[in-house]
Amino acid sequence: MKPDYKNWMPKGMILGVQTVSVFFLVLTYFTFYRTPLGKVFLALTVIFLLCSIWMYLMYRAFSYDGKRQMSKQIINGVSSYISIPAGGKCLDVGCGSGALSIACAIKNPEAEITGIDRWGKEYASFSKSLCENNAKAEGVNNTTFLQGDACSLDFPDETFDAVTSNYVYHNIPSKDRQAILLETLRTLKKGGTFAIHDIMSKSKYGDMESFVKKLKDMGYEEVKLVDTTNGMFMSKWESVWMGLSGSTILMGRK
Fold first, then answer.
1. Same domain membership, residue 28 and residue 74
2. 170 and 249 share a domain?
3. Domain check: are 38 and 131 in the same one?
4. Looking at the structure, do residues 37 and 131 belong to the same domain, yes or no?
5. Strands 89-93 and 112-117
6. Domain range for residue 130?
């Protein structure tokens, strides 16, 4: 049995955009010389065609079976920042297909990893059963997957020895994503480690340098921002054309 971590760029979304491209192409063929709308349809054909090409290139880069395997590189990289004591517990927020939860479980076999996600319609191919099947395929038995909300975690303060997340919070409509970070870190025990990877651009997160200072003022032992677009997970050029500029790991110890 082989794990299926899916793709961060859903194949169904690519096929949908390609179908729309073909639709506008047909309209262009029948209307270009007959009505001014023909030029509009041509423009829409080009736009959707370019979008489908971009999405296909993203799909290839993120594929676990492809040559680039960026997803796998990121998952293994983020999980390497997490340290969990024997018998300890880790929370993975927005676990998706279970990839990061399982990577943490493999690296920390004596710890218990809890992955939560709302598994919404935006990523309909991700589910609790998919996570459980992937854990089984990897021979992992120290993971638990639950329905949950990153904005309001159903766990008491200082429950976990480690918390982690990958490319989740920028997808949540919010005017204050730093508040979501604080909600995650609320569940971390004193002395616990954290590694949260996301697109932490100023437009999405505000001033993260000030946030780092805020955490240090709150008593966190170590807080650091690690740029992952400098060759760590991707090149600067890749981060630009993929729309991942600002990708950063917020990591440290409480």
1. no
2. yes
3. no
4. no
5. parallel
6. 70-253
Strands 188-199 and 247-253: antiparallel
2 occurs within a structural domain: no
Q: Which of 132, 106, 108, 128 is nearest to 119 (CA)?
A: 128
Tokens coding 236: 């600067």
* Residue range 150-199, pLDDT digits in tens: 999 999 999 999 999 999 999 999 999 999 999 999 999 999 999 999 99
Residues 16 and 98 in one domain: no
Neighbours of 189 (CB within 10 A): 16
Distance CA 43, CA 30 (A): 15
* pLDDT tens-digit map of 76-91: 999 999 989 999 999 9
Mean pLDDT of the chain: 95
| Whole-number Å distance between alpha carbons of 121 and 55 | 19
Instruction: Give the strand pairing for 160-166 and 188-199.
Output: parallel
